[in-house]
Structures are given as C-alpha cells and as structure tokens.
Amino acid sequence: MIITLYRNGADGRTHYYTIHDRQPVLDAPFTLCASWRVGLGRERERLHRFETLGERDKALRTLVARRVKDGYRILYFFSRSKFSLGVDPSAWNREPEAPTGLSATN
Fold first, then answer.
1. Dmax (CA) of the chain
2. Domain count of the fold of the chain
3. How does pLDDT run across 57-78, given as a tens digit for each residue?
4. What angle do CA 73, 78, 82 make, to 5 degrees?
5. Which of 55, 49, 43 is nearest to 17 (CA)?
6. CATH number of the structural domain spanning residue 46
7. For residue 61, is it within any domain?
8. Is the pTM of this model over 0.85?
9. pLDDT confidence of 88, banded at 50, 70, 90?
C-alpha cells in the first residue's frame, strides 16, 4: 500500500507526505514508513513498528486524518489488498457538496 498526499504551502511550495508499508524490518511484523518533503528538498522519514495489523491500520488512519485536517489532498493511492481507510480516496479531492434539497435560487 502507498498513499501520497500533497498541499500547497503559504509560500507557494508544494508539500508532499507519503505513507507506505513496503519496508520490512527484523524487529516487528508490521511497519509503516512515513516520509515528507517540501518541493524538491531533502526527504525525511520516520519508520513506525507494530506488533499487530490492527495497530498498524489504526495508526495509518490517524496519520492520514491528521494530514487531511492540515489541508493535504490525495495525489496517489495504491493497495494490492482490499484495504480501506473508511473513506473513498476519490472523495478526498472533491469540493463539499451542497446539502440536499437546497438550490442556488432559494
């Protein structure tokens, strides 16, 4: 699984945040690697280790929710399994819809 998010900063530079589970380690059965950078700058990363799949999935949802709250939008999402963040990834970039029953003429 890989998720890449982006946002435009106040200074006009693009901020990228990527989360993936493709980096195995010897001391934990499950991992998440979170990396971030601004524009073409140096990338930094943090490796999160988990003992259970449930812990990893909870952390993944938390990481994505924080970034979405900070104004990030989805750039790329791929998963080989039927993994779900509880949100349709295509909906992350949509503008909020008007409540049902209201029209522009009311």
1. 62
2. 1
3. 999 999 999 999 999 999 998 8
4. 115
5. 43
6. 2.20.140.10
7. yes
8. no
9. low
Domain of residue 34 covers 2-84
Residue 19, amino acid: I
Helix (H, G, I), strand (E, B) or coil at 92: helix
What separation in angstroms does the CA of 106 have from each of 21, 54, 75, 80, 103?
Answer: 49, 47, 36, 46, 6
In the DSSP assignment, the letter for residue 29 is S
Is the CB of residue 101 less than 8 Å from the CB of residue 35?
no
Q: Does 104 fall in a domain?
A: no
* 2-59 per-position pLDDT tens digit: 999 999 999 999 999 999 998 889 999 999 999 999 999 999 999 999 999 999 999 9
Per the domain annotation, does 74 fall within a domain?
A: yes
Q: Does 75 fall in a domain?
A: yes
